[in-house]
Amino acid sequence: MAGESQSTVGYIQHHLTNLTYGKLPAGYERLDESGHVHEVLSQDTWTLAHSSVEAAAMGFMAIHVDSMLWSIGLGFLFLVIFARIAKRAHSGVPRGAQNLLEMIVGFIDQTVKDGFHHKNAMIAPMALTIFTWILLMNTMDLVPVDWIPAFMAWVTGNPHFFFKVVPTTDPNVTLGMGFTVFGLMVYFTIAKKGFMGFVKELTLHPFHSPKWYVNILLVPINFALEAISWISKPISLGLRLFGNMYAGEMIFILIATMFGAGLVLGIFAGVLQWAWAVFHILVITLQAFVFMVLTIVYMATAHQVEEEDQFH
Amino acid sequence: MNINLTLIGQSISFLFFVWFSYKFVWGYIRTAMDEREKQIADGLDAADRAGRDLELAQEKATKQLREAKAEAATIIDAANKRASQIVEEAKDVARTEGERLKAAAEAQIEQDVNRAKEQLRSQVAKLALVGAEKVLEASIDESVHKDMVDKLAASL
């Protein structure tokens, strides 16, 4: 709940700031809450950012502790549980947890088989990881926005403690996964078609002429087009998930600001939050599924060798 | 909203989790599922085969039953035929035996009658002679009347 000292803007900003641990450069002037210079750093210092301004000043050499904590924690949580179930899995009549896992695995396996017709044992486990992990991270969005930050503020004794619980509302997380998928695409393309195959794919496509001197002219155009098409894949992958989750989180925060505005608005906000959460379940699942399916499709394109023939 | 090391951290954890799920989740659970799929397929196959076997066995049993019935009927037929044949034969034998016995008896009777007649004849001749002798003891000379007495005896 928004504290009385906090304005609505401050409340929203507070909810959108990650707990950032990073390096502040030497000579940086740290401000206290009232805006006065509170400390001037004599050297590069690794520390927790006390405001979003400080977090921004840290630049690239910083890490979002809350995002990493939740994403790795949730990843370990489901994988350790899955591994335990899988280890005890038997071919008899499946029960309870094994049933659930088999349902998920069967669903993923079917999706992978539909979209990916090559031989690669890594694709299905990757799809399983992507789907379950993103689904879990997105589901954190359904936890009322103030519960965990308020709890953390109580634990640390710092009412301004930043703590974002939905890792997928952090573009670092979604783009990190997007670029990893991109890296794997490049890797598998080169592994399947050779480095020259990769270069050819980038330069002799989509425009191609049987005359070599025309081709030379076409290479830069092709390269420009292909480079955009390649680089747009991880970015769209990451930003789609981020955008959806960020927007959803934003609406939850906006609804939460109404809780402090009297009984009638408070009840109205409660109803709205419930309705938005119900709708959001769809978004959560859909975004996890879309990310997985697109990854499978990209992996399938990377493995596709036949198309190369037309470049000869 | 700053792009920073979190991106790299997330990439590394992503790759690690993919490896982890490949190594410790996917293989085990897929193996169990494939095994079960195979067991179910085998079971269905076996059920199919058993059904076919049952059908065949039933067909065979019906056929054997039919054959057995037919065989029994033939056997009964043959037995009936044979029985009537035996009866006929026995009747024939009895009839011929009866006729033979009858003929023998008749012959015996005739023979006995003839013998009795012969005896009687000779007895009668003797008796007549004796009687006549007695009656005619005085008047009849045996040598003279012998022919006459014999004629008399023969006519008996």
TrEMBL record, chain B:
Gene3D superfamilies: F1F0 ATP synthase subunit B, membrane domain (1.20.5.620). It is a single-pass membrane protein. Keywords: ATP synthesis, Cell inner membrane, Cell membrane, CF(0), Coiled coil, Hydrogen ion transport, Hydrolase, Ion transport, Membrane, Transmembrane, Transmembrane helix, Transport. The chain crosses the membrane at residues 12-29. It comes from the Bacteria. One of its GO terms (molecular function) is proton-transporting ATP synthase activity, rotational mechanism. One of its GO terms (cellular component) is plasma membrane. Signal peptide: none annotated. InterPro entries: ATP_synth_B-like_membr_sf (IPR028987), ATP_synth_b/b'su_bac/chlpt (IPR002146), ATP_synth_F0_bsu_bac (IPR005864), ATP_synthase_B_chain (IPR050059). SUPFAM superfamilies: F1F0 ATP synthase subunit B, membrane domain (SSF81573). It is found in: Cell membrane; Endomembrane system. Pfam families: ATP-synt_B. Residues 51-78 form a coiled coil. The keyword Methyltransferase does not apply. HAMAP family: ATP_synth_b_bprime (MF_01398). Belongs to the ATPase B chain family. F(1)F(0) ATP synthase produces ATP from ADP in the presence of a proton or sodium gradient. F-type ATPases consist of two structural domains, F(1) containing the extramembraneous catalytic core and F(0) containing the membrane proton channel, linked together by a central stalk and a peripheral stalk. During catalysis, ATP synthesis in the catalytic domain of F(1) is coupled via a rotary mechanism of the central stalk subunits to proton translocation. F-type ATPases have 2 components, F(1) - the catalytic core - and F(0) - the membrane proton channel. F(1) has five subunits: alpha(3), beta(3), gamma(1), delta(1), epsilon(1). F(0) has four main subunits: a(1), b(2) and c(10-14). The alpha and beta chains form an alternating ring which encloses part of the gamma chain. F(1) is attached to F(0) by a central stalk formed by the gamma and epsilon chains, while a peripheral stalk is formed by the delta and b chains. PANTHER family: ATP SYNTHASE SUBUNIT B, ATP SYNTHASE SUBUNIT B', CHLOROPLASTIC. This is ATP synthase subunit b.
